[in-house]
Design goal:
Two copies of one chain form a homodimer. Chain A is mainly α and 241 residues long. Chain A contains ten helices and no strands. In chain A, helix 4 runs antiparallel to helix 5 and helix 8 packs across helix 10. The longest helix of chain A has 32 residues. Chain A is 76% helix and 0% strand. Chain A folds into two domains: 59 residues, Arc Repressor Mutant, subunit A, CATH 1.10.10.60; 175 residues, Tetracycline Repressor, domain 2 (Orthogonal Bundle). Chains A and B meet through helix 6, helix 8, helix 9 and helix 10 of A and helix 6, helix 8, helix 9 and helix 10 of B. Chain A binds a DNA duplex (18 and 18 nucleotides) through helix 1 and helix 3.
DNA sequence: GTCTATAACCGGATAGAC
DNA sequence: GTCTATCCGGTTATAGAC
């Protein structure tokens, strides 16, 4: 059994090497020339492989994008954790997380557009909204839970439970804006983050007011409904992966 | 001069016929087999034309989609105008517009997904958010202004000015949901419409309260910012059309 | 100068041999 | 696990007909 494991491990090791070689090459080329401009043939050639071999490891060009999610999320975490220690207010913490997110993905601006094109596609297995079990997404939502945990604010339980997810959706919206943002140094995005975080902070306070309870309940019920619908999508997409 | 006009008009007439022949064939096939499954070659063949000829009239497959926007918008208008006459409340009017919208696009469900894939793409000339001058979009926003005009509600001027645009964005969101919605007869979408319209009605009342003025002002300023950003996109895309 | 057709290009994806 | 050969469909170049 030990021998078998060893043998298998050697095999996968070689596969893993090839796989990560393709991945590195692809990400590098995407970064340099953009997603559309980088052909699968060019990736294979630069990695000194055949086209068919590249497809053996990544069954479509889109699948190369999954790596982008994972990688940038990890980089974001590294930057965000120390930054959060310095911030006590919800506003300060949210601002730190959002600004660092944009800074993290900045180097990949040129091909980030491709990401959202596929992400918006209903049938795509890469749609980040439909795959609730995606570990990257779960960790990303978890990060927003931590943002709330460390902040000194009183938020009613019902709202508190949904907020991490809602903030994650908000953060996806900001990324969508950033992708479209052609202003110098993406100042517009940073301004938008400043303004929306300010507003969000006020809206969360407002929604936490006991006076708002009925309408808050109704809105949260709606959020539940939307999440349920998204979860069903996940089930449907399973066959296509 | 009269002769010249005649000559030209005869020529364009023929061109127009060919063009609409292609369009009809394409929409029909999209409807039957979906967007991806319908090849340009198949459209050309069914219309008894050469492939090159089809491209002479529609410079890309995406351009065939523009016709979809126009057509369904017109059909929606026809259905909606008499229905609005029966409704006096904002809630009733909004509900009528939204339900009829879904009913109008229902026959095209199979290929509506393709529409949003391209629409979400930043660079696409078909992006409905970036092209503020698109007449179909303007008329669509105008429709929501009429919904408000006929309703017996008091809404502060600042909010009233932005609401048609905001409702249009809301309606795009519902369409996006509908595209993903695989529930029988799209009941889920209709339920979502019911619930969101109910909530929107309450939120509009809430936001109209004098007590909410500061936060409303701030939120509306944000909306302005977003619209400005979208308008800039339009300028950038001009070269690509 | 308006229209139509044919052939080719290009790049994502697949089949099947080794 | 890797390759070669091929498919397939969107798109383009181009030649020539009306």
């Amino acid at each position: 059994m030990s021998a078998m494991r060893k043998k298998k491990s050697v095999k996968t090791q070689k596969g893993d090497q090839t796989k990560s070689l393709i991945l590195e090459t692809a990400l590098e080329m995407f970064h340099e020339r953009g997603y559309e401009q980088t052909t699968m043939r060019a990736i294979a050639e630069k990695a000194s492989l055949s086209l068919g071999n590249a497809y053996y490891y990544f069954s479509s060009k889109e699948h190369l994008i999954q790596a982008f999610y994972r990688r940038t999320h990890e980089q974001h975490l590294v930057a965000v954790i120390p930054a959060l220690e310095k911030q006590q207010t919800l506003k300060g913490r949210l601002l730190a997380v959002m600004r660092l997110k944009i800074e993290t993905i900045e180097p990949y601006y040129e091909f980030a557009g491709a990401l959202f094109k596929t992400a918006a596609n209903p049938g795509s297995p890469l749609n980040p909204f439909s795959d609730g079990s995606d570990p990257v997404r779960q960790q990303s939502i978890e990060l927003f839970a931590q943002v709330l945990d460390g902040a000194k604010v009183r938020i009613p339980k019902d709202l508190r439970a949904e907020l991490p997810y809602l903030l994650w959706v908000y953060h996806m919206g900001i990324i969508l804006f950033w992708i479209h943002d052609k202003s110098p140094k993406h100042r517009r995005t940073y301004r938008l983050v400043d303004h929306t975080v300010d507003l969000l902070d006020k809206l969360i306070s407002l929604a936490s007011n006991p006076f708002m309870r009925p309408i808050r309940k109704q809105a949260l019920k709606l959020v539940e409904e939307l999440k349920d619908a998204a979860a069903d999508l996940e089930t449907q997409n399973e066959g296509e992966k």
